[in-house]
What does this fold into?
Amino acid sequence: MSERLNRYLARSGVASRRAADALIASGAVLVNGRRPPPQGMLIEPGQDDVKVGGRSVVPPLRHSYLALNKPEGYVTTAADPGSRPTVLTLVPSETRVFPVGRLDMDSRGLLLLTDDGELANRLAHPRQHVPKEYLALVDGIPNEADLRRLRTGIDLEEGRTAPAEVELVSTVRGRTQLRVVIREGRNRQVRRMLDAVGHPVRDLQRTAFGPLRLGRLKEGDWRRLRPPEVASLRRAAGL
It folds into this structure.
């Protein structure tokens, strides 16, 4: 059965569909020794020879699903032109996985990595509204008007955000810890929302992604997901 090249690359653990599109457009992918059109093409799995960077790629028989407690200072990409450390250096090199969504370099906490491109694509797609929970330490003490703005939507440069769940957890020495849940994946969204109400973020930790929680996983450590956790992620993704 024919399959889109970007989906095949995602199933093979090369990258998410969006990143696979960029790889195809860059010329790094060859199909039967030829560069496909920048917009991709249909291939026949098992018949067509697909190579990325000179290496043949095939979908794994079984997928890998990892939870990582990302420390600050790591970027959530497979490689970085600026030679900054990437999250893939924290997991076994023989496990070909990629991050689901982004967690900016200055943030820490739960990051899902997998070679299941279909699940990754669905979890990251805005249409699925998969919740992401954060603990944010901010300057100052947000008042009710600030919280109401966050809960109804903030006007950012690219448009208004969807309503967020926000609750005050604690206040210490002029700083406040907030629990924030969003269902979008805009660049540095939580930081920008809190900046917009005058409370810059000093520390940001993701504590949950859909039904998956960070729990007691130590910073810098990873673990494989249990089958019930994978099943709950698939349900959250509508699979």
Remarks:
- DSSP finds six helices and 16 strands in the chain.
- The mean pLDDT is 89.
- The CA atoms of residues 58 and 87 lie 23 Å apart.
- Helices lie at 5-11, 17-26, 117-124, 144-152, 189-196, 227-236.
